[in-house]
Specification:
alpha+beta; 10-stranded mixed β-sheet; about 425 residues; two-stranded antiparallel ribbon; 13 helices
């Protein structure tokens, strides 16, 4: 199996557009929570979200292309553009059929559905926008990224709800391992802060009804009451090691393990014993061929819902036993909210940056947890420490579990 490395990254997040600004936000414990401005929340149970401010699609693509994309696609193209530029990959020197694209979205465009449903009711079926379907469907993020940058290799849209970003990166890793591509742009994107998105998740009782931006998305805290919806995109360039070395690429990290399971339990709730999530984590560690004790950091799914945080804690204990108490566990969602299909990709990027800089960010807002949740959730302040491995977890409605293990790159191996 071929070795796979990370050579480029791009991000559009509620705390910063672009890797540099996003990482600065992480370092500053910046949070992106505020009152929703995209629509009137009167009558809605949830009024806070982590919106992206000041995003101008014309900075990342031509205006004509932007008009034919919904926001989730615009975010994806922006993140992919930065990742490709960051990687130094020159498509004119590459076989385009060896460069793939695995950029997923959990939902696609609810906004397009809202607009056109209103038009259907008010003006009739004949007035529906002819582009409704290609604007709405979730695979168009992957399609538009491929079109914009001439990526003609394997092109897949992974849709596993909130595990989409991690599965996209994990499946890209598998394809490169198997020799199906030299490089793949992989990640996730989402833009669902709209009446149907917020109303739907609220009706499911998944969203927090908190009104204090400082105490809303508080993963693992005893006062957690649901997640805060975020939006944005994360994209990485994964590349076969020898291909990257041959072109003199700067290698940011190495992907060394990937676990993927299903709870086969419930359409929204994780399995209460954490068995499926534990198996995914264990499989990733096993593939990396490391002792469990070598892993000292987990970027948790950590949504700030009662069930997820409790059951994920159980899963970590089931996987690592007593060593679980020596692992730092944090949640990036404490700063950016739950970016749904983009979450895993942005959290993967966070892991790579943390490995690069020897820094583990705190779970911002965390104060104290109930008795069973007794792991080190990195409260208050970040940890400055060199470490070699980071495990990133993502779990999605339907019982989808994904864990990906990334390693600080060492050339001599």
């Amino acid at each position: 199996m071929k070795r796979v490395v990370v050579t480029g990254m791009g991000a559009v997040t509620p705390i910063g557009i672009g890797i540099e600004d996003f990482w600065k936000g992480i370092r500053e414990n910046r949070t992106g929570f505020d009152k929703i401005t995209k629509f009137d929340t009167t009558g809605f149970k949830a009024s806070l979200a982590a919106e992206i401010k000041d995003f101008d699609p014309k900075m990342f693509m031509d205006p004509k292309s932007a008009k034919r994309m919904e926001l989730f696609c615009q975010y994806a193209v922006a993140a992919a553009k930065e990742a490709l530029e960051n990687s130094g990959l020159d498509m004119e020197k590459e076989d385009p059929y060896r460069i793939g694209c695995y950029v997923g979205s959990g939902i696609g465009s609810l906004q397009a559905m809202e607009r056109e449903h209103k038009r259907l009711l008010e003006r009739g079926a004949s007035r529906i926008n002819p582009l409704l379907v290609p604007l709405m469907i979730s695979n168009m993020a992957c399609g538009n990224v491929s079109i914009q940058f001439g990526l003609k290799g394997k092109s897949l849209n992974v849709v596993t709800a909130c595990a989409t970003g991690t599965h996209s990166i994990g499946e890209a890793y598998r394809s490169i391992q198997a020799g199906d591509a030299d490089a793949i742009v992989a990640g996730g994107t989402e833009a669902a802060i709209c009446p149907m998105g917020v109303g739907g998740f609220s009706a499911l009782t998944a969203l927090s009804s908190a009104t204090d931006p400082k105490r809303c998305s508080i993963p693992f805290d005893k006062d957690r009451s649901g997640f805060i919806m975020g939006e944005g995109a994360g994209a990485v360039v994964l590349e076969e090691l020898e291909h990257a070395k041959a072109r003199g690429a700067r290698i940011l990290a190495e992907v060394v393990g990937y676990g993927c399971t299903s709870d086969a339990y419930h359409i929204t709730s994780p399995a209460e014993d954490g068995e499926g999530a534990a198996r995914a984590m264990g499989d990733a560690v096993k593939e990396a061929d490391i002792a469990p004790e070598e892993l000292t950091y987990i970027n948790a799914h950590g949504t700030s819902t009662h069930h997820n945080d409790l059951f994920e804690t159980r899963a970590i204990k089931k996987t690592f036993g007593e060593h679980a108490y020596h692992i730092r566990v944090n949640s990036t969602k404490s700063m950016v909210g739950h970016m749904l299909g983009a979450a895993g990709a942005v959290e993967f990027i966070t892991c790579v940056k943390e490995l690069e800089e020897g820094y583990i960010h705190p779970t911002v807002g965390f104060e104290s947890a109930e008795e069973e949740m007794d792991l080190n959730y990195v409260p208050k302040t970040g940890i400055e420490e060199t470490f070699d491995y980071a495990l990133s977890n993502s779990f999605g409605f339907g019982g989808h579990n994904a864990s990906i293990l990334v390693k600080r790159y060492r050339e001599e191996q």
